């Protein structure tokens, strides 16, 4: 779970609640000089020139993820991510790998609840080639029957590895299913097993045609490039690709309230797993990213459970009689919702139910005694160091500004976010803490090999 949470933190400064307020007029402490333009078909392009090394990073953000799926095609976004490396009308799958790796580059992709992202790190001499490849993949994907069935098995095995055969995955998945039950966020990004086994090639291809369009994408290039050359090459390869009405039309029919947790009472789930020590997670409904409350919850999660000096680590892991082998807290901010969680693993012999009562009591106590000027400043310093480290590479910069653009419609939205973080006070964080613990509904999940099965 610590690995999963590290992935969540990658988007700490660049998540969104859907706000489109421009922030470009605010002071920029990072001095990032992005040049942007937009094609007539809606494709947004961001370019950041950095000529220190003869390389560049190319990121393509598609604003489609787990929350855009429905029953029957859950996991389609992630399944499609796999298939995007299997060739087009013009490029065989093996040729794609050769073009990237044969030129000394690397490529990868990821899917989450809100978006799908493809990225390459390449030498500068390949700019024309790779822009052409991304344009080709946007419109000319070929899904061969044998490759579709092969990837179906790969995805099913991935799900098994990440969830069914992983106690940490079981814990996270059950928490998400319960806290977001009845909402578009309440399913696995990898997909439900039954859907993965039965979704057809035609359904996935239709999904591709609906969502993979220039007006639903952001192209980001950072490195040893010229903005004028990028603009010329993007027009050359992308300008003839038509836009799609599906993204705007589909989202217009779903109100933001449909993504919020529907819980009105506590939910407790004890899952049978392969962990010989009880693993636990306590989860509350939290603010969507971009809302002021979410930034206070970020600070709160870090001072409660990030590192050995955190409040919960000192209380439960490093005390004279430890109750946990590890403990963490996290504020998982999604585009239209969020959840605040505390999780970890209990020491052998500690009763999960008694620990839950103690944890909830101490969480409430932390609102008054665990939040100080010193602890808040420590967290702010940690965030600053982490942000600088992320932006030290062309890949980190491309991902950073791309997330802001894809979710906020403003690559410079981080300026507003940094101001919010810096302005947060002890009072702000304490009040955010008090509002969380005052909620009548929460989700408590344990995974343990000694938990009774639901059938029993």
Summarize the structure in words.
The protein is α+β, with helices and mostly antiparallel strands and 456 residues long. The protein has two domains: 31-256, Metalloenzyme, LuxS/M16 peptidase-like (Cytochrome Bc1 Complex, Chain A, domain 1, 2-Layer Sandwich); 260-448, Cytochrome Bc1 Complex, Chain A, domain 1. 44% of the residues lie in helices and 17% in strands. It contains 17 helices and eleven strands. The chain has helices at residues 2-9, 76-83, 93-101, 127-139, 145-164, 167-179, 193-198, 201-211, 227-238, 246-252, 292-305, 311-317, 352-369, 373-390, 394-408, 414-423, 426-437; strands at 35-38, 44-49, 55-62, 106-111, 116-123, 217-223, 267-272, 279-285, 324-333, 338-346, 443-448. Helix 2 (76-83) crosses helix 5, helix 2 packs across helix 8 (201-211) and helix 11 crosses helix 17 (426-437). The radius of gyration is 23 Å and the shape is globular.
């Amino acid at each position: 779970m610590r690995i999963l949470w590290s992935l969540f933190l990658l988007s700490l400064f660049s998540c969104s609640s859907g706000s489109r307020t421009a922030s470009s007029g605010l002071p920029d402490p990072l001095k990032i000089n992005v040049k942007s333009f937009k094609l007539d078909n809606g494709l947004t392009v961001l370019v950041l020139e950095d000529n220190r090394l003869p390389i560049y990073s190319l990121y393509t953000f598609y604003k489609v993820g787990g929350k855009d799926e429905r029953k029957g095609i859950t996991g389609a976004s992630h399944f499609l991510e796999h298939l995007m490396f299997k060739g087009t009308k013009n490029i065989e799958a093996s040729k794609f790998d050769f073009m990237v790796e044969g030129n000394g580059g690397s490529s990868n992709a990821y899917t989450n609840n809100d978006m799908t992202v493809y990225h390459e790190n390449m030498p500068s001499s390949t700019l024309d080639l790779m822009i052409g490849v991304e344009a080709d993949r946007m419109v000319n994907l070929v899904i061969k029957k044998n490759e579709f069935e092969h990837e179906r098995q790969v995805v099913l095995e991935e799900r098994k590895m990440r969830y069914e055969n992983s106690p940490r995955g079981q814990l996270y998945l059950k928490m998400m299913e319960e806290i977001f039950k009845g909402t578009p966020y309440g399913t696995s990004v990898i997909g439900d097993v039954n859907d993965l086994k039965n979704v057809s090639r035609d359904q996935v291809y239709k999904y591709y045609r609906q969502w993979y369009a220039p007006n639903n994408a952001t192209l980001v290039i950072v490195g040893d490039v010229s903005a004028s050359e990028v603009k010329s090459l993007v027009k050359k390869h992308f300008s003839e690709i038509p836009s799609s009405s599906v993204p705007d039309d589909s989202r217009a029919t779903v109100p933001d309230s449909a993504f919020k947790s529907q819980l009105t009472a506590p939910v407790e789930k004890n899952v049978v797993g392969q962990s010989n020590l009880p693993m636990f997670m306590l989860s509350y409904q939290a603010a969507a990213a971009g809302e002021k409350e979410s930034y206070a919850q970020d600070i709160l999660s870090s001072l409660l459970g990030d590192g050995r000096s955190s409040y919960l680590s000192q209380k439960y892991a490093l005390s004279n009689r430890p109750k946990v082998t590890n403990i963490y807290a996290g504020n998982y901010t999604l585009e239209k919702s969020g959840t605040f969680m505390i999780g970890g693993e209990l020491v052998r012999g500690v009763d999960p139910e008694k620990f839950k009562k103690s944890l909830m009591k101490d969480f409430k106590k932390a609102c008054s005694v665990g939040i100080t000027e010193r602890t808040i400043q420590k967290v702010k310093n940690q965030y600053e160091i982490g942000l600088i480290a992320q932006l030290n590479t062309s890949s980190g910069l491309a991902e950073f500004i791309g997330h802001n653009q894809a979710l906020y419609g403003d690559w410079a939205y981080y300026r507003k976010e940094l101001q919010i973080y810096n302005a947060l006070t002890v009072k702000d964080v304490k009040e955010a803490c008090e509002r969380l613990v005052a909620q009548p509904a929460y989700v408590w999940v344990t995974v343990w090999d000694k938990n009774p099965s639901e059938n029993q």
